[in-house]
Amino acid sequence: MQLSKLFRVCKERLQWGERLKMANAATINALAYAIEARDPCTRGHSERVSRYAGWIAVSMGLDRKKIELLRVCARLHDVGKIGVSDRILLKPSKLTPQERAEIERHPVYGAQILSDLAFIRKGIPIILSHHERVDGTGYPQRLKKHRLPLEVRIISIADAFDAMTSDRPYRKALPLPEVVKEFKRCSGSQFDPQVVRVFLCLLEESGWAAHDFGGLLAA
Questions:
Q1: Are 29 and 79 in contact (CB under 8 A)?
Q2: 45 is in which domain, residue-wise?
Q3: C-beta atoms surrounding 171 within 10 Å
């Protein structure tokens, strides 16, 4: 193959790769916005979880490709809530056992929604398992720590942190000392102790201020 032709082919492939990357990013954004449009109270949640998870992953030494996939999974972790009815998803009062069971199906719905998207296929087990607990009492498959990828254990903490530090219709955001106390209490049951230690070190380095921590993750 002539050098000029080889150069043209390489350039076309690079351009195609960039277009594909942009299309994937647009798909991720569209799905994330669709989730948050259902429940305005969670606006910005998936992006914050993605940033927190990415920062933890960097601190734990994950490689670049794993971090990129982790952040995409964190951004889309709640996409399955699209399949839950508004009556249940937006209910301000306590859920019935039947309603709780339906909410707990959202990781399964998420895996189904994303199953045909090639760029996220490797991340589907992560999204499916983001509500599992290290003691095996989570959902939907009741997997224990040794069966949970590190990425799942990271997203679990990032998700919980944002939930606890955000206002909800049924409660105000928790003060950071209470959040830290909750992570320590649930270390070894809900959360991986190793990831908890890394995360609490990050919080302490940021001066124990949630807004400072968020600032560190803004890049």
A1: no
A2: 3-216
A3: 9
pLDDT, tens only, 37-76? 877 767 889 999 999 999 999 999 999 999 999 999 999 9
Closest C-alpha among 146, 163, 157 to residue 187: 157
Q: Which two tokens stand for residue 149?
A: 């990828």
What pTM value is reported for the model? 0.84
**What are the distances in angstroms from CA 32 to CA 5, 36, 113?**
41, 6, 13
Give CA separation, 24 vs 44, 50, 61, 118, in Å. Answer: 19, 16, 25, 10
Rounded to whole angstroms, the Cα distance separating 72 from 67 reads: 9
* Surface-to-core class of residue 176, CB atoms within 10 Å of its CB (0-12 exposed, 13-18 middle, 19+ buried): middle
Which residues neighbour 180 within 8 Å (Cβ) at sequence distance 6 or greater? 200, 203, 208
Number of domains in the chain: 1
**CATH code where residue 76 lies:** 1.10.3210.10
